[in-house]
Write a structure and sequence with these properties.
- With about 230 residues, the protein is mainly α.
- It has one domain.
- It contains ten helices and no strands.
- Helix 4 packs antiparallel against helix 5.
């Protein structure tokens, strides 16, 4: 019975991870409030959850804001690009729904396919940006590459991110759970899924101090350096 409540026990480790995810979820939501900072916040979130998956989290707040500051410019530009594309797709969908013009069914199907491809191609964008140091164009390219390389896991990641939204729509009473884990939960599960894929493009040895190296490392054409 004593081992159950030992600091090294699986129960204590689970409770500690759970508390960290709740704190990280609230921290991310607060940093997303200005809207313009959502990209940097999501990048910092993915930076921390991957460290948690690898048991390298250390000080969560410090790691979060380290990534937030380091990737702010690129993350913000990427977020604005995604916002623009989403706005165009949403505008097209709105026009088709309320316009008196009869759009052919193939056009609606094509729009749905484009929307799915966008989600599929960008599901890894912020995780890739959090871990690898590349240009914005290369980051999008790597995200698509990662998505194709681990297709089943990518689909699972999309489903994980859809769960909180679906839960709120059909089970609003679950709002407290979504409030506590609606962002960090899917991000953590996603990190569990893409962790092994990312390791294929990382150096075999780390810096030894729990922090990822920021020195340029030649891997493949898909990565330039690892953070």
């Amino acid at each position: 019975m004593g081992k159950l409540f030992d600091l090294e026990s699986p129960l204590f480790s689970f409770l500690n991870k759970f508390a960290d995810l709740v704190y990280l979820n609230i921290l991310t939501m607060i940093c997303c409030i200005p809207i313009i900072t959502i990209g940097a916040s999501m990048t910092a979130l993915n930076y921390v959850v991957l460290k948690m998956v690898r048991n390298e989290e250390g000080y969560i707040t410090r790691a979060f804001f380290k990534s937030f500051k380091q990737n702010f410019k690129q993350a913000t530009l990427i977020w604005l690009i995604l916002l623009l594309i989403a706005g165009i797709l949403a505008g097209d969908a709105f026009i088709m729904s309320y316009s008196t013009v009869a759009f052919p069914s193939w056009f609606r199907i094509a729009l749905a396919i484009v929307a799915f491809i966008m989600v599929f191609a960008t599901i890894h964008v912020f995780p890739v940006l959090a871990k690898f140091d590349n240009s914005i164009k290369q980051t999008f390219k790597n995200s698509l590459f990662m998505g194709i390389l681990s297709l089943p896991k990518t689909i699972l990641m999309i489903l994980c991110w859809a769960v909180p939204a679906v839960t709120l729509i059909f089970f609003f009473r679950a709002f407290p759970i979504v409030f506590l884990l609606g962002i960090s939960g899917p991000a953590f599960v996603g990190a569990l899924l893409y962790n092994k894929t990312f390791k294929r493009f990382e150096p075999e040895e780390d810096t030894g101090d729990g922090e990822w190296s920021s020195e340029p490392i030649e891997e493949t054409d898909s990565t330039e350096s690892v953070k």
